[in-house]
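Morning!

As promised:
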Amino acid sequence: NAGVTQTPKFQVLKTGQSMTLQCAQDMNHNSMYWYRQDPGMGLRLIYYSASEGTTDKGEVPNGYNVSRLNKREFSLRLESAAPSQTSVYFCASSSWGGAGGYTFGSGTRLTVV
Amino acid sequence: RKEVEQDPGPFNVPEGATVAFNCTYSNSASQSFFWYRQDCRKEPKLLMSVYSSGNEDGRFTAQLNRASQYISLLIRDSKLSDSATYLCVRSYSGAGSYQLTFGKGTKLSVIP
């Protein structure tokens, strides 16, 4: 099925561990995004990539890094996980101009203990 | 002040009722607006775009008032399946990208 695929769906990390969240889209979209969603906070932008080869910080980038591997893939890395990074992470993509809005992946539920 | 503000609800309405949500935004440079729907523990999904002239999609009507900086969503003849959180979203373009800012959402529960 066409869309945005995120892996893994669930993850438990210990404080200080590292991990990479993977995201791939097959809709030929130029732009990709990583959001986190916390209770009472709504969706907050972590990083985005307007096009292949570019990445920029969003609202809450501290503690994260990203890589736009190619047009299809955009990964999010936590180098040293902290309990404050316990959240649901969503990847999204859009065509330039975004007339169709964003298409989201199904999310990764991350718990840092 | 949050750029997009919504009443978190919950709105508890009986089946068949009409319910309306409003959302205010603070950035007049906003270009486009959307309503997204998010079911519990699921990803947000685009419900509809919002145009100044107003637009309708079945039982759903969206309206944008740029002068007063608010958008609205009207749901007629509510169904149990309409129970979800509705996210008000504004978009803007800048620095080579197109970005969305999400409200925190309004929770709707449709009761039998």
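The mean pLDDT of chain A is 93.

Hope this helps with the figure draft.
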